Amino acid sequence: MSEAEEKRADALFHALADSTRRDILRRVLAGEHSVSALARAYDMSFAAVQKHVAVLERAGLISKRRSGRESLASGEVEAIRSVASLLGEFEAVWRGRIGRIDDLLARPE
After folding, report:
1. pLDDT in tens, 38-69
2. What is the pLDDT of residues 7-16, one digit of tens each?
3. CB 73 within 8 A of CB 33
4. Which of 94 and 67 is assigned the larger pLDDT?
5. Distances (CA, A) of 18 to 10, 14, 52, 56, 103
6. Residue 53: CA atoms inside 13 Å, Cβ hemisphere, count?
7. Is the dihedral of CA 25, 30, 34, 39 positive or negative?
8. In terms of C-beta distances under 8 Å and separation of at least 24 residues, what long-range contacts does 33-40 make, across chains too?
9. Mean pLDDT for the chain?
10. What does the pLDDT read at residue 33?
11. What is the DSSP string of the chain?
12. CB 72, CB 27: distance < 8 Å
């Protein structure tokens, strides 16, 4: 991976490391939500929810648009696909290791 790709992966996994951010992401993947509506769903300040949304936005997992006075958040499916792709790479490495162990175990002594 290039340095830019590594930084992108760091941002994605950092954003996904928090349960509140994962929940916000689930909500906005299901449909567009205003940040104020999102904030009402959590037992934390509006500013704290805004910070969570900002982390997700910096990672590219959500995008925001203005509609009048409201800021509307939507999930970015392509970013989710890139996370799945990264995890697929890890799985391929793991499966390769398991395959080598199977080969060793199958060798006659």
Report:
1. 999 999 999 999 999 999 999 999 999 999 99
2. 888 899 899 9
3. yes
4. 67
5. 13, 8, 9, 10, 39
6. 26
7. negative
8. 33/72, 33/73, 34/67, 34/70, 34/71, 34/72, 34/73, 35/64, 35/70, 35/71, 35/72, 35/73, 36/70, 38/73
9. 88
10. 96
11. --HHHHHHHHHHHHHHTSHHHHHHHHHHHHS-EEHHHHHHTSSS-HHHHHHHHHHHHHTTSEEEEEETTEEEEEE-HHHHHHHHHHHHHHHHHHHHHHHHHHHHHHS--
12. no
Residue type, 54: A
Do residues 60 and 74 touch, judged by C-beta distance below 8 A? no
List residues bridging with 74 in a β-sheet: 63
Residue 70's DSSP bridge partners are 67
Would you state the structure tokens that stand for residue 72, as one six-digit string? 């509307």
* 1's tokens: 């991976």
Residue appearing with tokens 């567009």 = 32
The structure tokens listed for 13 are 């996994």
| 103 has a pLDDT exceeding 70 | no
